[in-house]
Specification:
Layout (H helix, E strand, L loop, with lengths): L3 E2 L1 H9 L5 H20 L5 E6 L4 E11 L10 E3 H7 L8 E5 L7 H28 L5 E9 L3 E5 L5 E5 L14 E12 L2 E7 L3 H11 L1 H4 L3 E9 L3 E8 L6 H6 L4 H9 L4 E6 L4 H8 L7 E5 L4 E6 L1 H8 L4 H10 L2 E6 L22 H9 L5 H5 L3 H7 L4 H17 L1
Parallel strand pairs: 3-4, 8-10, 12-13, 15-16
Antiparallel strand pairs: 1-3, 2-3, 3-5, 6-7, 6-9, 7-8, 9-10, 11-12, 14-15
Helix pairs in contact: 2-4, 5-8, 9-11, 14-15
């Protein structure tokens, strides 16, 4: 048997379009040259010829024909009398090419070569996968949920590569079912047990940035730039944007007509409230915008200490702080300043802490909130201060709905 068919040994390798043919041939050649070195102590006088398409491999041995009795190196030279037994027309000084029968290596050696080849192929595929995803860090991918575990979700991309979405990188409201498609950003590529592990994220600012880039053509075209994004995943996000074209309103472009551009992103992020803010180098104006939707009366800024005291009317304090303090926390992260909130009223006047009703939009349906606002109840305390019977009379809401809303509001104050 003069040749060996290696199709089974590297069929999977050949089908992987990410690995070129020349790499395949080089790997196979290296494996069998190692085999030759073990048998003959050297591979200098052997040619390994690989047909990657057919999966065929042939090995030829080259030796110079010399006069009988002048053979000094049996690996590189052959006596004339031996050469003419193979082909009578040979002459001294010519090269003799002989095809090596693979059976000469023995069954064990051939099996070992196939195992080595499979191992090398596996390593190469891992390197290709790692380089592919390292170059795509920060990009959004869509993958299918394959398995849901307590601490992570396993997804498969279109090429059946495994991707991991850890619990820490999931939005708290995320709930996945096997077979559904999930979008996430490629966060990093780790090496675990010599195997690349692709980590995805839905909580990183980069995920929101890429979603905005998809929905807002002006960002993709470079007319609008995202200066900074801060997030409390599933709760709220603040995005500072700037336009390089005076004719383009960056906030309006990002929000879209009647919120058409931002609504899709909000749904993707499980109703996360997104504040789009016009970036400015004016620190005071930037801080004021960062506390949206609250309106500031005035502030006292200490730029050296990165500290600012903000004064607001009493009805704006709950908006500035936000539910669970999320709004002011994100404003601090966005501006880099430590922000303290004070009421504008006279000292000594006590103000009851309140929360804007809109802050409960993740637990209370919007139409219910709108119905309360219709009768002038736009904060938590304004609802709780009225009895259930009074609320039932003044609104078109059912008693069960009113009781559910009051329970949600009361639980929030108990947490505080």
């Amino acid at each position: 048997m003069a040749s060996i068919n290696l199709i089974e040994a590297f069929q999977e390798f050949r089908e992987d379009e990410n690995i070129d043919r020349s790499t395949l041939m080089k790997v196979v050649e290296d494996v069998f040259k190692t085999l030759l070195k073990k048998k003959y102590s050297s591979d200098d006088n052997f040619d390994v010829i690989v047909n990657a398409e057919k999966g065929d491999l042939e090995i030829f041995r080259r030796r110079m024909i010399v006069e009988d009795g002048e053979v000094e190196d049996p690996l590189a030279e052959v006596a004339y009398s031996e050469a003419v037994t193979i082909e009578p027309d040979f002459e001294v000084g010519e090269e003799l090419y002989e095809e090596v029968d693979m059976l000469d290596f023995g069954r064990r050696a051939i099996l070992a070569a196939k195992q080595t080849l499979a191992s090398r192929i596996g390593d190469l595929k891992k390197n290709v996968l790692m380089k592919k995803y390292e170059s795509r860090i920060g990009e959004i991918v869509s993958a299918e949920v394959y398995q849901v575990w307590k601490k992570e979700v396993l997804l498969m991309d279109e090429e059946n590569n495994e991707l991991i979405l850890p619990k820490s990188e999931q939005i708290p409201q995320d709930f996945f079912k096997k077979g559904e498609n999930v979008r996430a950003v490629i966060r990093r590529v780790d090496m675990k047990n010599n195997t690349p592990v692709i980590i995805l994220s839905r909580t990183s600012p980069e995920f929101l940035a890429k979603l905005l880039e998809i929905e807002v053509p002006e960002i993709y075209d470079g007319l609008i730039t995202i200066k900074k994004i801060v997030r409390e995943p599933g709760e709220r996000a603040k995005v500072a944007v700037e336009s390089f074209d005076d004719r383009i309103d960056p906030v309006g472009a990002c929000v879209g007509m009647k919120g058409s551009r931002i609504h899709g992103i909000v749904r993707e992020l499980k109703n996360e409230n997104i504040d789009i803010i016009n970036y400015t180098d004016n620190i005071q104006l930037y801080i004021q915008r960062s506390l949206t939707p609250a309106k500031i009366s005035f502030m006292e800024l200490d730029q050296d200490k990165k500290h600012v005291e903000v004064f607001l009317n009493s009805d704006q304090i709950s908006l500035a702080i936000g539910r669970k303090g999320v709004n002011i926390k994100l404003a601090c992260d966005l501006t880099g300043f430590n922000i303290d909130v004070f009421r504008e009223e006279e000292e000594g006047e006590e103000e009851e802490y309140d929360i804007d009703l809109q802050e409960f939009s993740d637990e209370i349906d919007q139409w219910v909130i709108d119905e309360f606002k219709r009768i002038g109840c736009d904060t938590a305390h304004s609802v709780l201060n009225l009895s259930p019977d009074e609320l039932e009379k003044r609104t078109d809401l059912e008693k069960e709905t009113i009781e559910d809303v009051r329970r949600v509001l009361q639980e929030e104050f108990e947490k505080e």
